[in-house]
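User: I'm writing a tutorial on reading structure tokens. Could you give me a worked example: one chain, its sequence, then its tokens, then a sentence or two explaining what the tokens reveal?
Assistant: Sure. Here is the example chain.
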Amino acid sequence: MHARRERGSLRIGQVAEAAEVHIETLRYYERKGLLPLPPRTLSNYRLYPEDAVLRVRFIKRAQELGFTLVEIRELLELGQQKDGDCAEICQRARDKIQEIEAKIASLRAMKRSLTRLEGACAGSGPLSECPILEAMQTGTRKTGIQKAGRKPAMSKKKKGARK
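And here are its predicted structure tokens:
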């Protein structure tokens, strides 16, 4: 016989379905401290408050925007402050934008490097002569390839040295 469910409480499967996540995701969020541990029924079922669905949706949306689980926990805590100001949230959004822009720049550099490597490859021949494999195995820069997002190392010259 099932224990009587409290009004306004949802079981784990209901929360997962409403928030469009797997049950294991809810358990994971509990372990990470993002979702408070819910009370349990006499038969040991979790009973979540209805706002748990909104909280899980918030977590998923924040992840989609690039926030880490640690950052999301901080955002949730900031959102709970009664006398808080949105300036802190806005600054965190600006910081995340800068982080995303740096990742985009790095991805573009990787694409340029890989495009150069692909262009240097004849597309046929023995693997021992493949410029793509050679560049990845040895770090050779015969084709002008550098590590993505990094500037070439400057050669150190002694003061007064001539070319």
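What the tokens reveal: Residues 87-138 form one domain. Residues 109 and 163 are 31 Å apart (CA to CA).
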